[in-house]
Amino acid sequence: MKSSPWEKIKWLWRTFWSLKRTPYPRTRWGTGIILTSLGAPIVNLGLMVIELNFDIPISISYIDKESTFLSGALVLLGLLSGIALIYSEWNNASRNIAKVLISSMPNTNLEFPEYLLDPAEKAFFREPVMLGVPSSNNEDIQDQINLYNAELTANIFNRLIIHDQCRKLYIGGLARVPFLIAYGSLLRNTGIDIQYFDKSHTGQREWTLLNEEKINLTYNGKFDNISANESGDIAIAVSFSSKITEDQIPQKLIEHTLFINPNVSPERNLIKNQENLTEAAHFISLKIDEASKQVNAKRVHLFLSVQAPLALAIGQRFQEGMHKKWVIHNFNAENWRYEWGLELSASGVRPFNSLELT
């Protein structure tokens, strides 16, 4: 799917200016001012002096001095200005960009991908925060649940990550979709600029920002003749990374599931642009709104084949007061079925046995 000419122009413009940036710009400017100021005494200052007397109405003379009070004042002003610029960039209080890596999958690299970051912002980054605990099998799910609920109780995002006037957050990582949704929900009351990064499956860098051109992605899915079952369960299946088929949906929900598909073939890194990500998360959240408004609905079940940033962005739109309970299911490809899930609420997550719906 090609992008529009206007999107190409905007992308090229943003890319050009990002390449023009250099690390620590104020340090560079401050150093330049200091060096220039120290060199000022070497240059003699020529001063024009205007004198008034009775013999000649106006007399103009030129004087040349090696050092003057004015040159000294300019040197001092330059030194102070340069030091102030450097201090403003390196002052710890100005570090207002947070970094988070979620790691809840086996063999995940626990180092934050620093190469993704804009070097012009380097002085403003806080230390990275790691969330989650790596696990290798379903027996570790309870450990992850306990850790997530502890992080929620400790209010870790507000107290340790986005505190003290944080203005931007870089976040990404690998975890099972139910936990990504849960971590995304912790961001629902934040108004900061969130930059998502994704696991790359192209064989290039391990991680990548969503900074490619915006493309024309649309999605289909309507709740025509779809309602909650007698138990109050209604479901939404999203096929962005891979196709979700009816035989994968638990038996009790097959006739009560809305299937959402993009206008292109599914792929692992389907969404490569931040605006496309926002639009996709918004579309899915609107469908969750519709499902929650049904009179008999008690729980909205989510079957999501999506990339990690989209799962986080969907979770960010969780609203307990507006939505019915969310149950996010995890797919086991070996057994070709959803075996467990998480029931999400403002007080945390708890396990859900997906096999009860078969």
UniProtKB/TrEMBL annotation:
InterPro entries: SAVED (IPR040836)
Coiled coil: none
TM regions (residue ranges): 29-49, 69-87
Domain SMODS-associated and fused to various effectors: residue ranges: 169-344
Cell cycle found in the keyword field: no
Superkingdom: Bacteria
Pfam families: SAVED
Keywords: Membrane, Transmembrane, Transmembrane helix
Protein known as: SAVED domain-containing protein
Organism of origin: Vibrio algivorus
